[in-house]
Amino acid sequence: MEWYDLDLPDVIELRRKLIGGEAARYHLLDCSVLDSAWLGTVSAHRRRPFLFLAEGVLMYFDEGQVKSLVLSLKARFPGAELVFDAFSPLLSWANNLRVSLTQVGAGAIGP
Prior knowledge:
Low-confidence stretches: none
Strand content: 15-25%
Number of helices: 4
Helix content: 40-55%
Shape: globular
Mean pLDDT: 82
Strand order of the largest sheet: 1-2
């Protein structure tokens, strides 16, 4: 299996400092998941099955961007699997409220 860590350049730089560099089958790609250039890099290993992990990623994109990404993966990597975390709109709203209250030092709402 080939393993790719894909993240923004600043995050990849931090990973290199904390975890170390690449290995024979471990690769660091410093770009946005929405930048389609990485798809070509990963396609080089077509002889192996693909598993894509998107932990804490998709929540930062709008519906159109997520749909485009998923359709690109489907077209380029037939049979691949995608594992991701998802939040309902209510949970997302509640979390954003909690974070905003914490940042301003407000207490809990209600009795």
